[in-house]
C-alpha cells in the first residue's frame, strides 16, 4: 500500500509505503465511508463495495472484501462492526475475537506463513 499525502507540518508531499494497514473504525452507516479518505479511495477503485443491506462492507465467508464485481479480495479483510450487514451483530470483543479466530487460518494461507 502506498500513501501519498501532504506532510503534516511542512505541507510538502510525502510518500510512504506499508505492508499492512489496519483501519479501526466502528459501526457507521454504510455510506459513511465516503467521509473516510482511505475507505472512499478503496471503494472508488472498486476494491470493496457496500453489502446488500447498505450497512457496511460486503465480505465473503472469511471476511475478505468483495470488490465491485463481487470477487473476493483475500488481501483486504474487514472484521467486526463493518461486517454487520453480512454477519448480523458483530459488536463487542467476544464476537470480534471469535471472528478473527475463525478467519486466521485463511489469512495465514493468503500470506504463505
UniProtKB/TrEMBL annotation:
Source taxonomy: Bacteria, Pseudomonadati, Pseudomonadota, Betaproteobacteria, Burkholderiales
Highest rank taxon of the organism: Bacteria
Organism from which the protein derives: Caenimonas koreensis DSM 17982
Name of the protein: FAD dependent oxidoreductase
InterPro entries: L-asp_N-monooxygenase_NS-form (IPR052189)
Amino acid at each position: 500500500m502506498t500513501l501519498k499525502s501532504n506532510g503534516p507540518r511542512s505541507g510538502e508531499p510525502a510518500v510512504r509505503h506499508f505492508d499492512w494497514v489496519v483501519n479501526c473504525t466502528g459501526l457507521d452507516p454504510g455510506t459513511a465511508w465516503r467521509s473516510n479518505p482511505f475507505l472512499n479511495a478503496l471503494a472508488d477503485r472498486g476494491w470493496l463495495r457496500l453489502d446488500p443491506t447498505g450497512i457496511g462492507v460486503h465480505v465473503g465467508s472469511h471476511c475478505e472484501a468483495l470488490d465491485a464485481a463481487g470477487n473476493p479480495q483475500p488481501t483486504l479483510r474487514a472484521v467486526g462492526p463493518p461486517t454487520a450487514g453480512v454477519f448480523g451483530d458483530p459488536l463487542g470483543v467476544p464476537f470480534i475475537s471469535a471472528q478473527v479466530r475463525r478467519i486466521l487460518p485463511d489469512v495465514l494461507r493468503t500470506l504463505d506463513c
